[in-house]
Amino acid sequence: MPDLDAVVQEIAAEMAQRSDRGEVAHYIPELARVDPGQFGIAVVGTDGAAAVAGDGDLPFSIQSISKVFTLTLALGMIGDRLWRRVGREPSGNPFNSIVQLERERGVPRNPFINAGAIAVTDVIVSGHQPRESLGEILRFMQFLSRDATVTIDAAVAASEKRTGFRNTALANYMRSFGVTENPVDFTLGVYFHHCAIAMSCRQLATAGLFLAHGGRDPETGFSVVSAERARRINALMLTCGHYDGSGEFAYRVGLPGKSGVGGGILAVAPGRASIAVWAPGLDAAGNSHLGRIALERLARRMGWSIFG
Amino acid sequence: MPDLDAVVQEIAAEMAQRSDRGEVAHYIPELARVDPGQFGIAVVGTDGAAAVAGDGDLPFSIQSISKVFTLTLALGMIGDRLWRRVGREPSGNPFNSIVQLERERGVPRNPFINAGAIAVTDVIVSGHQPRESLGEILRFMQFLSRDATVTIDAAVAASEKRTGFRNTALANYMRSFGVTENPVDFTLGVYFHHCAIAMSCRQLATAGLFLAHGGRDPETGFSVVSAERARRINALMLTCGHYDGSGEFAYRVGLPGKSGVGGGILAVAPGRASIAVWAPGLDAAGNSHLGRIALERLARRMGWSIFG
Amino acid sequence: MPDLDAVVQEIAAEMAQRSDRGEVAHYIPELARVDPGQFGIAVVGTDGAAAVAGDGDLPFSIQSISKVFTLTLALGMIGDRLWRRVGREPSGNPFNSIVQLERERGVPRNPFINAGAIAVTDVIVSGHQPRESLGEILRFMQFLSRDATVTIDAAVAASEKRTGFRNTALANYMRSFGVTENPVDFTLGVYFHHCAIAMSCRQLATAGLFLAHGGRDPETGFSVVSAERARRINALMLTCGHYDGSGEFAYRVGLPGKSGVGGGILAVAPGRASIAVWAPGLDAAGNSHLGRIALERLARRMGWSIFG
Amino acid sequence: MPDLDAVVQEIAAEMAQRSDRGEVAHYIPELARVDPGQFGIAVVGTDGAAAVAGDGDLPFSIQSISKVFTLTLALGMIGDRLWRRVGREPSGNPFNSIVQLERERGVPRNPFINAGAIAVTDVIVSGHQPRESLGEILRFMQFLSRDATVTIDAAVAASEKRTGFRNTALANYMRSFGVTENPVDFTLGVYFHHCAIAMSCRQLATAGLFLAHGGRDPETGFSVVSAERARRINALMLTCGHYDGSGEFAYRVGLPGKSGVGGGILAVAPGRASIAVWAPGLDAAGNSHLGRIALERLARRMGWSIFG
């Protein structure tokens, strides 16, 4: 087994030298200002080991990575009834496509495309004020990352709200079919805010550790979800976690993962480690360009692919 | 670790008692006549162990499962140039959809939907007579299954050819974009015939063993593909192997797999075993109903999920 | 030439006896309460003749028929620049489809599908308060119908606003592409209200008279639009005026027309007459069932088809 | 009333001077060789007047214009039963799209897109040898154009057959749903050949005269179809005759018309004249660029728009 810390440092050094960095997301004004030269990585093992390199302690906008955690919360609230409102299949379309919704009567294909994550957020919002729901999500993130300083970047949330016409379209569209039930403004408000949570790679990798360890925190033994549910969330990340680049990510990296347009990716090596990388530049499918390459190298050098 | 043989017998017994069996594929007349009461299973371990139960030694039409092996062959012939003609993403559409082809200029989304498999077959056909190409595919299957008696069911092939208007449409459509290059009749002839290969669960599980063992036959050490290519084929099976039910299969079973409308499924537990199940009745997405349930139980009882 | 008044009375009598009446629109609660047994018709000739029968003097919700007049207004404001924001082709999709918008970057196919009419309304709203824009539209309708009592049914407008999630989706979707420019709430507010204008067949037929008379009011000679623009609006009504039933309407009736989900249809016999019919029950494409049949009979008996 | 002959000469002169000529269809090799500098026009009045200018006596490949006549023939054979196999709505898609066929179970939207015309041809083929069906179509064209020298350009037909993969896809696709019934090769053979009929503008305008005169030849009084059927064919030409440019043609020209990728357009001024124009260069929607402009001018100068 290669030395994890050495591999992580090595990869950070390699990434620092690359000039191909993709394009920073420009449709959210606040994100468009981020320096594309940054790169962070953090690996937290189920054995307690941790390796952090580059900008791995700098907070960034986790964006859609939050969808893994809101899915976890919503499943905890209503269990498999969630699947009446959202499917479990890859979409075959870009992350913000509305075409599939028309064909399938407002039911989004999976919880990781925008429409699906809005439907999941709507479940969390049910019966609560937006402020309460948001508080619950934030506390969950602080708890999982063992860090009470995790917070929401209000400027990013406001920026998304101001420019989120397409997400507003998706939300209203689903509401027209009764797939969501709460006032569209409530649900979208919570959605825009949990996407604007800011975390470092170290915090994020820690937060995802339960997915690599049968649903439990390996340090405290606290059970976040059952082992079966952890496996299933991993399966959904693998098939749907990278929008219309999910097949490519599985093919190249071979680990369950979820990307965000902030340039972060959370990946899970079951039984071994939780990994977070961050590089703001995106590829054509909206996933972190260097983030994916870094994970590909890490998985190969550590022999962590789930595919053999 | 539970006893493999006991688990396999147990599952076969459980399946024999179920009355929910799905519907036998009716669009290929020869397949419509198959008795839906049959069920077979075979598990071949990378350690040489084998467990077979039910109708696990009865040959059935492997249909689309052949696409795993034609993909392997075509990659051996032209390597990554194959990916100029076919993508690596889940389709988000039924197995025989032509919609995506129009949107993406004739390039099928992945090698496991019908259009993609026809494009892969076209690569194998290039520069050869159909008869030679077909011979090569058949010999490859005999070699991998260590059984020279594996053969093609000519009646099934003829039945598909007579009624294969939709596949003929797909093939001509891709040809119009130059994605395929050979005479449409040549390519389709080979395609219909390799889908009509008949194998038992035991033969099929043996043939897939290299995918569970880093690309090599564990008995002889013969290398079929590199370890990396084996991993990548597994990744493709996981994200795309069950048409528009691929997400569901990953979610429930947690193993790479490829189904066929004959009711067979080949699944791979990396590092552990190659598995073949067969139950002719299909679910709405065209995958074996009991086959999937049997694999779900096997993976859970043996602890073989790749997701933790 | 048959006697117009006799033909109109005859058709009203025939329609009164039919039991096939289609289904009243149920997605707008206020409209769902309308009595499907009603039928009205009014024909106003370019020669000043008028024939009214049945409930031809009862006001009903003109709904999408208002789109003919908002199009006329918007063309008067910005002329052919309007066509940068909306197309002139039949959509091949239901009236509230969003699929086409995704494929064509937010530009609706024509001004008569919901998305297109919202884009047209957005032009009228530009630079004004919603209340002013709405006032302008209403005054235009009063002027054209020569009746200052024409008004907006506030209950219907409120009902649409409360339940108009799908239109809200369309509006936000176009806004995300910059096809519309004003606050979505402003534009939708005006849209919901002009769709809620209530008019009788007599008022509506009078309002449409300029389209049958080279763009001018035949009584006063006042020019509403140029003769060419009148022809072009008629052409758009013929190809796009009945959503995905436009081909059928042209085939059966042979006159330019625009339907609304309130059960009204405005039709134009160029050089001869403006016609309004009203029967609340709709067919599968969302067009008045008896309204279409009545117009088919009128066109045939009067020899008014534009197709020979 | 302006002098028809003067107007026609004038338009031919204007067209000769234009340098914007569109692009000659390149996907049929034989058509790609045609000189884009040619322009022909012929107007045949219901009163017997005829005006021909430019290359109006040169034969060209009528291509899809033949679909008007095969529709007429098929309606004569099986009447309104034809509409079980093909719709009457504009498609909202390019002429050779297959997307709509998947959504609507193999039933093409109208008889003038490629799929619809193949379905219509399949009706004509039923119960006959391809050679007989083709003979019938050709004799019909000779009869209508009062010219027994009209013939099929075998080189064009062969060229289409060799490269017609997309039409072959459409035909097989419909066959898979049972929308067509005859051997795909038979139907396609006849289809490719009737599209390859070569006619001059003068011959074509003569052939279409019955559509401008209530279904009858004004000279002989011979009734080709009923007046109602003539109107209905005109309506279909208006809504569907120019593929995804039908709305535009109605908007600009205001006459029923049918275009072909050979650069011809047949247009009908009901009660007045039948018109054929030919200019090989096409616009983006596949319709003759100068042909449309010439018709727009003719309709305006003669006051022939059906819209007022």
Chain-wise SSE layout:
The structure is a homotetramer of 308-residue chains.
Chain A: H1 4-17, E1 23-24, H2 29-32, E2 40-45, E3 50-54, E4 60-61, H3 66-78, H4 99-103, H5 114-125, H6 130-144, E5 151-152, H7 154-163, H8 165-176, H9 184-195, E6 197-199, H10 201-207, H11 209-212, H12 227-240, H13 246-252, E7 257-259, E8 264-269, E9 273-278, E10 281-282, H14 289-302
Antiparallel strand pairs in A: 1-10, 2-3, 2-9, 4-6, 5-6, 7-8, 8-9
Helix pairs in contact in A: 1-14, 3-5, 5-8, 5-9, 6-9, 7-9, 12-13
Description:
- Four copies of one chain form a homotetramer.
- With 308 residues, the first copy, chain A, is of the alpha+beta class.
- Helix content of chain A is 46%, strand content 12%.
- Chain A contains 14 helices and ten strands.
- Chain A has a five-stranded antiparallel β-sheet with strand order 3-2-9-8-7, sandwiched between helices. A three-stranded antiparallel β-sheet of chain A has the order 4-6-5.
- Chain A starts with a helix and ends in a 6-residue tail after the last helix.
- The model of chain A has no long low-confidence stretch (mean pLDDT 95).
- Chains in contact: A-B, A-C, B-D, C-D.
- The interface between A and B is large, with 42 and 42 residues.
- Chains A, B, C, D: Belongs to the glutaminase family.
- Chains A, B, C, D: Substrate binds at residues 64, 114, 160, 167, 191, 243, 261.
- Chains A, B, C, D: It comes from Lichenibacterium ramalinae.
